[in-house]
């Protein structure tokens, strides 16, 4: 069962269990996926929709948005709203693969540099492309960029 099927099944389960937080979050996930499906359909005429890799990207963006919102709510002393955002993050993360820790990330960066034969900062795009192809959804690429840059400098 693909990621889309797992999300649909979780939505049905949340309806049966009357879990309001989980249900609303899963509906938001489905809406984001359908938006992406429609955008793809209008650009390339593809009726299949997005694949699991694209869904992982969507989920990653949703987590990042909620982290930023939670931070803003905490700064504004709106703790109940921050807690709601954090609850949504927990639901979204159930569909994301396990994130790599620091040592696994460093090893992955080193392997990507070795595989691409990167030797200077000009090769950073090749390394990032290799990492995205292999570890999509398993690492935060906004944090990986500086690591790759420091290794290539």
Summarize, please.
The chain is mainly alpha-helical and 153 residues long. The chain has 7 helices and no strands. The protein has helices at 3-17, 20-44, 52-75, 79-93, 102-116, 124-135, 141-152.
List keywords for this structure.
single chain, 153 residues, mainly alpha, Hypothetical Protein Yqey, Chain: A, domain1, Arc Repressor Mutant, subunit A, 2 domains, 7 helices, globular
Topology:
Blueprint: H1 3-17, H2 20-44, H3 52-75, H4 79-93, H5 102-116, H6 124-135, H7 141-152
What report would you give on this structure?
The protein has 153 residues and is mainly α. It folds into two domains: 3-93, Hypothetical Protein Yqey, Chain: A, domain1, CATH 1.10.1510; 102-152, Arc Repressor Mutant, subunit A, CATH 1.10.10.410. Helices cover 77% and strands 0% of the residues. It has helices at residues 3-17, 20-44, 52-75, 79-93, 102-116, 124-135, 141-152. Helix 2 crosses helix 4. The longest helix is centred in the first third of the chain and has 25 residues, at 20-44. The model has no long low-confidence stretch (mean pLDDT 88).
Principal-axes geometry comes out as globular
Helix and strand run: HHHHHHH
Number of domains: 2
CATH topology of the largest domain: Hypothetical Protein Yqey, Chain: A, domain1
Structural class by secondary-structure content: mainly alpha
User: What is the alpha-carbon Rg in Å?
Assistant: 18 Å
User: How many individual helices?
Assistant: 7
User: Distance N terminus to C terminus?
Assistant: 43 Å
**Helix content estimate:** over 70%
Query: What is the percentage of strand-forming residues?
Result: under 5%
Mean pLDDT: 88
Number of strands: 0
Poorly predicted runs: none
Briefly, what CATH class of the largest domain? Answer: Mainly Alpha
Major sheet characteristics:
none
CATH superfamily of the largest domain: Uncharacterised protein YqeY/AIM41, N-terminal domain
The assigned CATH architecture of the largest domain is Orthogonal Bundle
């Amino acid at each position: 069962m693909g990621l889309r099927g797992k999300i649909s099944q979780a939505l049905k389960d949340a309806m049966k269990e009357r879990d309001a937080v989980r249900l609303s979050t899963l509906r938001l996930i489905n809406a984001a996926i359908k938006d992406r499906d429609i955008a793809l359909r209008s650009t390339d005429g593809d009726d299949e929709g997005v694949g699991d890799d694209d869904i992982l990207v969507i989920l990653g963006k949703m987590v990042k948005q909620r982290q930023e919102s939670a931070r803003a709510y905490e700064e504004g002393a709106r703790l109940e709203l921050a807690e709601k955002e954090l609850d949504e993050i927990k639901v979204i993360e159930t569909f994301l693969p396990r994130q790599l820790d620091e040592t696994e990330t460093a090893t992955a960066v080193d392997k990507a540099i070795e595989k691409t034969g990167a030797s200077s900062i000009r090769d950073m795009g090749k390394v990032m492309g290799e990492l995205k192809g292999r570890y999509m959804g398993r690492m935060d690429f906004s944090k990986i960029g500086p690591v790759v840059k420091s290794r290539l400098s």
